[in-house]
């Protein structure tokens, strides 16, 4: 396991990422002063984002189903616990954006290569009411998957 967002596990079989970028900003208020540089007051933590970039080869790794699951998670408007591969709890995060680029197609139009970008934003750890429940849409995705194979 590389990372876990709620019940979605990032690993070789799902959506393995090749790059993780973590940006944390701080909020500072500026007070202008005559003849001097502005004075600043620390207001607390600002926005914190994690961006995951990866390339999937559906014949060997995860594929469109995994990206559909992430899009479904994003559409719930919920935050999910983010846990690193070594077990560190990184707080509650919501999916802000999922993008993909498909290429190298086979005859039926299925991509052999999928590049994806996933942007997560951190929310306050005390917003437990936003915590996401994956069960309603996991069953929907599984049913869609079963219909596609029949």
UniProtKB/TrEMBL annotation:
Domain of life from the UniProt record: Bacteria
Pfam families linked: Phage_P2_GpU
UniProt cross-references to InterPro entries, sorted A to Z: Myoviridae_GpU, Phage_P2_GpU
Name of the protein this chain belongs to: Oxidoreductase
């Amino acid at each position: 396991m590389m990372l876990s967002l709620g019940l979605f596990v990032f690993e070789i079989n799902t959506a393995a990422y090749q790059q993780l970028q973590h940006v944390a900003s701080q909020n500072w208020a500026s007070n202008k002063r005559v003849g001097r540089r502005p004075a600043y007051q620390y207001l607390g933590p600002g926005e914190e984002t994690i961006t995951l970039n990866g390339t999937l080869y559906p014949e060997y790794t995860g594929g469109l189903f995994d990206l559909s699951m992430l899009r479904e998670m994003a559409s719930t408007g919920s935050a999910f616990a983010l846990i690193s591969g070594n077990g560190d709890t990184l707080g509650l995060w919501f999916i802000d954006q999922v993008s993909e680029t498909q290429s190298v197609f086979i005859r039926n139009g299925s991509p052999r290569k999928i590049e994806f970008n996933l942007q997560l934003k951190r929310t306050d750890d005390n917003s437990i009411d936003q915590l996401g429940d994956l069960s309603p849409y996991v069953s929907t995705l599984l049913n869609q998957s079963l219909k596609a194979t029949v």
